[in-house]
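lol so apparently i was supposed to do this last week
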Amino acid sequence: MIQVENVDLAYPGGPVVLRGLNFQLAAGSFHFLTGKSGAGKTTLLRALYLDHRPERGAIRMFGEDIATLPHEALPALRRRIGVVFQDFRLLDHLTVAQNVGLPLTVAGIEPDRRDKNVAELLDWVGLGDKSGSYPPRLSGGEKQQVAIARAVIGNPRIVLADEPTGNVDSDIGGRLMWLLAQLNRQGTTLVIATHDQTLLRDYAAQAGVLHLDGTGGVVQQSSAPVQMPHTGS
Ligand SMILES: Nc1ncnc2c1ncn2[C@@H]1O[C@H](COP(=O)(O)OP(=O)(O)O)[C@@H](O)[C@H]1O
Ligand SMILES: [Mg+2]
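anyway here it is w/ adenosine-5'-diphosphate bound
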C-alpha cells in the first residue's frame, strides 16, 4: 500500500531531515510513527499525503510512483488518503456539519447524500448534537472528533494522523484512538504519529512501530498483524 525506497526528505535551503528511508506498509496495517520532537514525523507524514516531494528516492502509494505521476492525477490519489492534522485545520466560519461535508461538497456529491453521510459520521464520532456549532465554540477534543470525521468521509484507504491525541486530555485521547483503531479494524491502513507512550503500550498488540531515531538515518520497523478488509459495502 505504501512503499518508501531510499527516500531523502529536506526543506529548501535546510539540511536533510530524513535520509535513506526504506520501509513498506501493507494494506490494512496499523503503525505508530514515533521519534522525539524534531525527528521528522510530520515531515514524513507530509510526504505520504503528497504535500512534500522527496529530494531523492521513490514513494509508491497504491502501487503508483508519485514522482512520475502526472500532476493532474494527484488530487484523485490524495482523495484516497485521509489526514488528521495536529492543529485540526477546521474552517471557523463553517459549521461542524459543513466542515465534515466539505470534501464531498468539493467532489460535487449530491447534497442529500452528503448530508446523510455527514450525519452518520457525526453520530459515529459522538458529535451528533453539535452539527450546527462553529469550531471556535468546541473543545480541543471535539475539534479533533470533527477532524477525524472529515478525514474519513471520503472513505479513504489510508488514514494518516499527526499526534491526534496531542492536544486533548487522556480520556478524550482514548476515545479518539478507539475511533482510529476502529477504522483499521475495518481494513483502513493507519499511520499515527505520536510520542505518547501510553498509546504505544495500549495498542502494542495491534500496531507496528516505525521509529525515527532523530539523526535522520534510521527507521526501525516492527510489524503487527494485518487487518483483513471487510468485504461488501
Ligand atoms: N517548513 C519547514 N521548513 C524548514 N524546516 C522545517 C520545516 N518544518 C520542519 N522543519 C524541520 O524539520 C525537522 C523535522 O521536523 P518535523 O517533521 O516537524 O518533526 P516532528 O514532527 O517529529 O517533531 C526539524 O528539524 C524542523 O525544524
Ligand atoms: Mg510533528
